[in-house]
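Complex record, two chains
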Amino acid sequence: MTATLQGAAVRGAPPARDVLLDVRDLRTYFHVLDGTVPAVDGVSFDLKRGETLGIVGESGSGKSVTALTVMRLLDIPPAEIVEGSEIWFDGREILSLPIDEVRLIRGKDMAMIFQEPLTSLNPVFTVGDQISEQVMLHLKVKRREGLERAIESLRLVGINSPERRVKQYPHELSGGMRQRVMIAMALSCEPKLLIADEPTTALDVTIQAQILELLKLIQQRTGSALMLITHDLGVVAEMVDHVVVMYAGEIVEQGTVHEVLLEPRAPYTMGLLESIPTVEKRGGRLSAIQGVVPSPFNLPPACRFQPRCPYAWERCSSVIPALNTVASSGRLARCHLHASEGAGRLPAALEHHRRAMAVGRGVAAQSAES
Amino acid sequence: MSAATVSTPAVRARLRRRPPDQIRRARAFLYGYVALVTTVVVALVIGATLLRANAAWGILLNVSPAAVAAVLAVLATRGFRDRTIWSFVLAIAVAGALILVAGLMLNTMLDPAVDAACRETAEDEADCGNAAFGLGVVAGLLLLLGLPVIWNLILARAWFFARDTGGPAIATAETLRRETAASNAPAPSAASAAPVAWSDPSPAWTGASRDDTSTSDGLLVSVRGLKKHFPILGGVLRRQVGTVYAVDGVDFDVKRGEVFALVGESGCGKTTLGRTLLQLTPPTAGKVIFDGYELDDVDEDDMRPLRRRMQIIFQDPFGSLNPRMPVSDIIGEGLYAQGVTDRADRDKRVEDALEIVGLRRDYTRRYPHEFSGGQRQRIGVARALALDPDFIVCDEPVSALDVSIQSQVLNLLLDLKRDFNLTYLFISHNLSVVEYFSDRIGVMYLGKIVEMGTVEDLYRDPRHPYTVALLSAIPEPDPRRRRKRLVLKGDVPSPAAPPSGCRFHTRCWLRERLGNPEQCATTEPELRVIGGTDHRAACHFAEQIDTSAVEQIAAQQSVLETAAADPA
């Protein structure tokens, strides 16, 4: 996680060998009728082989677009990947590769699991056809061998009697089974990077537990790296090693899962954690983040979280905050509180957060008054 | 459900039941007849005016008895709602009169003497033939319509002659309106907690102040044996080939001022239960007692005064607001239906409601697409709140919202509950939200409540294996609590073919651990009291659940065995 942001890797030069995916200053803009949407605006992170990375954010924060850009799945135009963005995957810069070469990587070395399994599976082909198609393409094998691989990967994701299942159509399977098929499809070519975009959002709690446990097991067995995109901090806590928190197209905080979830340092992450209802907050009000996510056409001038931030002061609406290093190395938060100018305000903010986490802000305020 | 475990709630009055299908069919026939006669009369008047033909006026004269009969028919249909012999007599008499008139007309038309007289007096002989043809058409249609009315009424005759078997008094719309008026005119609390008091202290329905006849047991809503089954139609003839047991025998009480939550996975019937409870879909069996009024397959017109007091907030803020209506109409529609017909008065109340949910007063002329998800859900809340209800069914009100917006809406709901003395039925699949938000919980699985109790009882000491698994499956936003989950096998079975005995036995981890006892697959467990006073669970082996052993079981199981078992 640390290399790029400390400037260790030089622009245009490949990252260290153990880094599987290195995204550098990625900017993906959409040109639409109403103007330009900076969906991803200067995002940098890396992912080492076999590690797990969680990208967290609300709808519209740019987390899915990041994944689609990495997969080179965006239509250009309307999308535009701004000059200077770099994505290094397995030692190659993939944004500059011709699309034919990307097709050789996509599905083989990096695979994606989509959110809604029903809409991402083709309803007119059998499950076996859909899985074996990419096996046949990438591994240059015959149809029969492709089907055998498909059966093998269905067995790997815990589907009973896969010989029968490969002949079924998506509508014959339940939601959990479809998501297992999606995972089987992604795994069929043994990818080095697995991107899961909200893999459990459309599923019930008990099925979600099945799928998450399955993803963990698969990742242990195959040793592939996992990039998990979700809005659910619970899923993140359960699954990943490193977390990137996104807000309005920017990274606002990144670090290990323990650091980010237990000691958040960006006001947005703090607010998110405070607003999650827990039993400790019963009886008190949840300290909700004020307002709504800003419109991408009309972003605040400096800090994008400033209008909703309880700790904001004048500087926040005039100077764009940098991703400042917090405490340990590799721990970053985009907030002036962690620059020298805001250091004086930091303890009060942290105290505020601690109270809000304990009992909810309403109760905390009342007890402070009495 | 045995009487020993569930108390019988006090019933003050009950609402008239919906008349049987045949009555409604006969009524529909009569309405159709009225529409037809009106059309014919209007067409003839227009035709006569345009053509200035004297013969056409003559036809009009002949048809006018039919118009009189039509008015009588409408009056008769009103009587169908009362189960009295006189309404039966009246209805049969009117339907008979229709046929009589038709017969007379036919008779006149076919009488050669009349026809001959016509041909003598009329200037043009062709007029007579046309008149006779027109009369024939009208008479034929009258016969066609009159006979089915009588046939349906005769089929449903038992309903007219049935005697009321004692029981609580019947409340009609008029008495309800009087009794429920001012049920909860919001009393501005001393602390002035409400952000805005209602600007009009006496809405249309708060005329009289009701003497407090509310039930003494403190229950606002009681549900007893509620069932809702949907038919599965199939084949060319659309015959019923199966039944979806969406809600299959549910009993619970909601106390005044509490939040009762229903949790369960999709397809467990929690949304259907909420809708059936509000009588938005007629229940298949069972009844609901709301504030002492027994609702059992109610008559829609009588239900209206109570509808004001029971509102619903829908799950999807994008699907539940009509995109072609401005906010003033979306919120004002319910007010209009409840008798606030004055436009200015209605708009004022809409603005009040908007302000209470934290939106600006001048948003009334905007359309739903101009709002974000959180704002839309606030509009949904305002729509429910504008009618000053006692009881709100919140059907997954925050599931479609982002985390930061979700907490805003939850806060709003809690504030409103305090300010307006609301009682919530909170339907959700999110166990963390439920734990924070509610007082008592019912866990549903395949149309039944499998466990019910206070939040403390249920979360600390779950007594049904399904609840244990649900709780274990919650992902907590705390990496220190990362643990092996107890993962259930397979998927929820289809509610069209629920498993025998205990519905959970096909996925039950406890049953497996106890060596698959026969009882689970043969005998349906009762929702019985366990431990605490109000903690119930429907499991034969509820006492054998050891929460400390759960982690150990979780560690032993293999994820790969959790996919759905193959149907043999």
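Note: Chain B touches chain A through 51 residues (CB under 8 Å).
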